[in-house]
Amino acid sequence: MRLSVKGVNKSFGGLQALHDVSLEIVSGHIYGLIGPNGAGKTTLFNVLTGLYKPDAGTFILDGEPYQPTAVHQVARAGIARTFQNIRLFGGMTALENVMVGRHVRTRQGLLGAVLRTRAERREEKEIKEYARALLDYVELRQYAGYTARNLSYGHQRRLEIARALATEPKLLALDEPAAGMNATEKVDLRQLLEKIRNDGKTILLIEHDVKLVMGLCDRMTVLDYGKVIATGVPQEVQKDPKVIEAYLGAGGSECQQS
Ligand SMILES: Nc1ncnc2c1ncn2[C@@H]1O[C@H](COP(=O)(O)OP(=O)(O)OP(=O)(O)O)[C@@H](O)[C@H]1O
């Protein structure tokens, strides 16, 4: 997997949320995207996953032009994401949530599941088994029958990751997966993300917890006011004066920890 993003611009009225943003993500990395509030991180995610149309920019995924113009095309291209605000189907069980994610990858799709021919029933069984295995993978198997909205916050975040993994993405884009988690849940999350990377997936991560990002990411890009101010390995980036200034200027001292 290799994703090249070049020269992305995106404005909202008079506000330029992204200004000539370029980055390159390679296989097997956890790639961090950080920056103060309003820096443009989520906007870049939304552009990459077809929710916002960029004003300019090119995207190459595995040597092919990639045009993230619709959400289903993004999934088919092999990119899956989670959201800053959890977007599960709250009334469905944990297992059903993962099964919905899986339907993107299957032959019959949701309509087939409704019509229920024999082939569809067989496929539905396979989907269920696959979803169970994924719940196992994110250590939520015992919650398979729980309604999603009744799960703890940390578990809901892991469930979102399982649902995203169900599409068998090449690139898993996670928007603040640790938001609202307690210290123990963050340790568990870190282990899960490392396991996903070690199993050969590539992760793009927006995260406010700089300590978590610094410890986890192989490479990272820092945005400030819509511009890339630094790219590199965490050890370099955290020493970069522009990065320190951006965080201090925003009233934080998050980047000073190692
Ligand atoms: N749909 C929109 N309409 C208008 N302005 C927007 C829209 N989405 C984002 N913006 C603006 O674009 C800028 C970048 O926002 P964005 O949410 O991408 O930042 P962020 O780095 O993800 O911030 P945070 O860390 O607070 O989530 C902000 O000034 C924001 O107000």
From TrEMBL:
<feature type="domain" description="ABC transporter">
    <location>
        <begin position="3"/>
        <end position="250"/>
    </location>
</feature>
<dbReference type="InterPro" id="IPR027417">
    <property type="entry name" value="P-loop_NTPase"/>
</dbReference>
<protein>
    <submittedName>
        <fullName>UvrABC system protein A</fullName>
    </submittedName>
</protein>
<dbReference type="InterPro" id="IPR032823">
    <property type="entry name" value="BCA_ABC_TP_C"/>
</dbReference>
<keyword id="KW-0547">Nucleotide-binding</keyword>
<dbReference type="InterPro" id="IPR051120">
    <property type="entry name" value="ABC_AA/LPS_Transport"/>
</dbReference>
<dbReference type="Pfam" id="PF12399">
    <property type="entry name" value="BCA_ABC_TP_C"/>
</dbReference>
<keyword id="KW-0813">Transport</keyword>
<dbReference type="InterPro" id="IPR003593">
    <property type="entry name" value="AAA+_ATPase"/>
</dbReference>
<dbReference type="InterPro" id="IPR003439">
    <property type="entry name" value="ABC_transporter-like_ATP-bd"/>
</dbReference>
<keyword id="KW-0067">ATP-binding</keyword>
<dbReference type="Pfam" id="PF00005">
    <property type="entry name" value="ABC_tran"/>
</dbReference>
